[in-house]
Design goal:
With about 180 residues, the protein is an alpha/beta fold. It has one domain: 3-Layer(aba) Sandwich (Rossmann fold), CATH 3.40.50. The chain has 6 helices and 9 strands, in the order H-E-E-H-H-E-H-E-E-E-E-H-E-H-E. Strand 7, helix 5 and strand 8 form a beta-alpha-beta unit. The chain is globular and about 40 Å long. The mean pLDDT is about 95. Belongs to the purine/pyrimidine phosphoribosyltransferase family. Keywords: Cytoplasm, Glycosyltransferase, Purine salvage, Transferase.
């Protein structure tokens, strides 16, 4: 399937979670077998071209797409978790949200020093979580130069923030508005 055909599988829900927001709902893509498979193939091709040695995905939808890409390439997957979810000593990074802060954590042994990590997630909006994830993976010794997303919301500037941090950003599709 083409990326235009995949884009047609994304449902737009107006005024969710608040008035004026156009929510891009991936559950319709996830429920379409051929569309989901094609999405994984498109992302995997980009990750392979980037020299991925391991894939990292942010909780929770990054787990879906990141694991699919890792399986497609036959390489490992690193889950980037919310705090308190891993049963071992972790490393973490705190980052700012619009109204507060959040934290991401990983198993520091999940990355070999100098290993090329490609981040995969469903959507890039403001970029806060993706920037924090890149920082965390770099702290663990990974080389993070590529991030792949199914959807980019360019008006929110997240992709540009990542690029400013030395991370190339690719998305299968972009939607105007947010």
């Amino acid at each position: 399937m083409t990326t235009d055909e995949l884009k047609a599988l994304i449902r737009t829900v107006p005024d969710f979670p608040s008035p004026g927001i156009q929510f891009r709902d991936i559950t319709t893509l996830l429920g379409h077998g051929a569309g989901l498979a094609a999405t994984m193939k498109h992302l995997a091709k980009a990750a392979e071209l980037a020299g991925a040695e391991v894939i990292a995905g942010m909780e929770a939808r990054g787990f879906i797409f990141g694991t699919g890409v890792a399986v497609e390439l036959g390489i490992g997957f690193i889950p980037i978790r919310k705090p308190g979810k891993l049963p071992i000593k972790t490393i973490g990074v705190d980052y700012d949200l619009e109204y507060g802060t959040d934290r991401l954590e990983i198993d520091p042994a999940a990355i070999a020093p100098g290993q090329r990590v490609v981040m995969v997630d469903d959507l890039i909006a403001t970029g806060g979580t993706a920037l924090a994830a890149a920082d965390l993976l770099r702290q663990a010794g990974g080389i993070v130069e590529q991030a792949l997303f199914v959807i980019d919301l360019p008006e929110l500037g997240g992709a540009e923030k990542l690029r400013s941090a030395g991370v190339t950003v690719d998305a299968l599709m972009a939607f105007d508005g947010h």
